Amino acid sequence: MRVLVTGASSGIGRDMCRYLGTLGHDLIMVSRDQKKMETIAKDILTNVEIIAIDLSVRENVFQLYEKVKDKEIDMLVNGAGFGLFGNTWETDLETELKMIDLNITAVHILTKLFLQDMVKRDKGIILNIASSAGFLAGPKLNTYYGTKNYLAKWTMGIYEELRRTHSHVMVSCLCPGPVKTNFNNVAGGEFYVKALSSDYVAKYGIDQCLKKKLIIVPGFMVRLSLFFNRFISKKLSLKIVYYIQDKKSRRK
Fold first, then answer.
1. Is residue 103 within 8 Å of 53, Cβ to Cβ?
2. 110, 153, 168, 218: most buried by Cβ count inside 10 Å?
3. CATH code, 195
4. 138: burial class by Cβ within 10 Å (0-12, 13-18, 19+)?
């Protein structure tokens, strides 16, 4: 199986590449950082192709697809993304627009284009990496939460469309809680609760995706928190999320 992974130079994307390699799958690693990907690829025993490109630029996303479309991608992992802490009226607009371009637009384009190819072949797997934030509103990390809500709900809609047409194409959405990655350094905050290791989340996400799980939430406490969030008021949920995100930003 040939797997294309975006966000492959760090965090969950990096560890998914390593794990997929141990499963015997060939890889196309995509991120902006050529050197990091080259270092990671040295330890992967399967065939690895490296493409250094900035997917926050829309034209580059189409360029990536054109470059690999004839290689029959069996699995697409959309892992590139970042966040930004702060009140909505205080955060930098250009940074937020770049976040939307990477977290939403790039994922939308790649998913749609590869999905069309997979539906024609009636086989293929797409794994979109969202977040447990995809089921909540996120004061102090508001735009990031909004992008992950889009991704989670959009993937769920695709799943039902495929199911109704009896397609053999599979889609999954990985929705982890806090993970030990470079996310906080980019976003400008620090986790207030214990984070899972990225290698655990990567392995769990791949394993559950291959088992055709739609929504994948690693960690019992995260699943429990999302469950109980259904039974409290929206305003109380907002207060809790604000408290957690405010603690993150203050600890930086």
1. no
2. 110
3. 3.40.50.720
4. buried
Residue 37, C-beta contacts closer than 8 angstroms, at least 6 positions apart: 8, 9, 29, 31, 50, 52
Percent of the chain with pLDDT strictly greater than 70: 93
The answer to whether 154 and 171 have CB atoms below 8 angstroms apart is: no
158-193 tens-digit pLDDT: 999 999 999 999 999 999 999 986 554 544 444 445
Q: Helix, strand, coil shares of the chain as percentages rounded to 5?
A: 55, 15, 30
Amino acid identity for residue 28 in this structure: I
**pLDDT tens, position by position, 4-55:** 999 999 999 999 999 999 999 999 999 999 999 999 999 999 999 999 999 9
Q: Is the pTM of this model over 0.70?
A: yes
The sign of the torsion formed by the CA atoms of 63, 67, 69, 74 equals: negative
Number of domains into which the chain is organized: 1
**Which range marks the domain in which residue 24 is found?**
2-251
